[in-house]
Amino acid sequence: MRTASIYVLLIGVCLSELYSLGVPIKVKVAVFWEAWQKCPIPPSVLQIYFNRIFLSSADNTTRLSTWLCVLFALVRVATLQKISDNRFQMISAPGFGWILIFCSFVCSFVISLSFYFKDEIEELGPWIPQPG
């Protein structure tokens, strides 16, 4: 199964899609958890940053799965065109697929983080519970 870079790229697409599908579940659980508590505590700065990283990772994996599909098609075309040339046999190696996944992930993650960290978090003061 893992003897070609195409299969490694497909594994990357599957993992990124699974992560993308898990994000709405996490958001619904967080909303349910907050509604279930009688006196919910506001999130800490660490929790806010964790949620931002989690949501930017969700955007990242959505973008990443699209680019991995494009890379899948490009690698397949390049492999079929250069099938008899021994210099291009490394394109079909699984290691090349992992390198493509890593480079795509890093580029997409930088774009996602730059979007989510353009805002600043401002602390308003100590939290005081509502009476009642």
TrEMBL record:
Which residues, if any, are the signal sequence? Answer: 1-16
What GO molecular function annotation could you give as one example from this UniProt entry? G protein-coupled peptide receptor activity
**What keywords does the record list, in alphabetical order?**
Membrane, Signal, Transmembrane, Transmembrane helix
Task: Check the record and name the Pfam families matching this protein.
Answer: 7TM_GPCR_Srw (PF10324)
**Regions crossing the membrane:** 95-117
Keyword Metal-binding attached: no
Q: Which residues form a coiled coil?
A: none
Which protein is depicted? Uncharacterized protein
Q: What is the lineage of its organism?
A: Eukaryota, Metazoa, Ecdysozoa, Nematoda, Chromadorea
